[in-house]
Amino acid sequence: MRPKEQPAGQLGRYGPVKIATFNINGVNTRLANLLEWLEAARPDVCCLQELKATDAQFPAAAIRALGYQAVWKGEHRWNGVAILARDAEPVVTRRTLPGEPGDAQSRYLEAAVGGVLIASLYLPNGNPQPGPKFDYKLAWMERLNAHAAALLDSGAPVVLAGDYNVVPTEADIYHSRSWKKDALLQPESRAAFARLLDQGWTDALRERFPEDPPPWTFWQYFRQAWERDAGLRIDHLLLSPAAAARLTDAGVDRTVRGRERASDHAPVWIELD
Question: Which residues are catalytic (predicted)?
Answer without folding.
Answer: 122, 163 (proton donor/acceptor), 265 (proton acceptor)
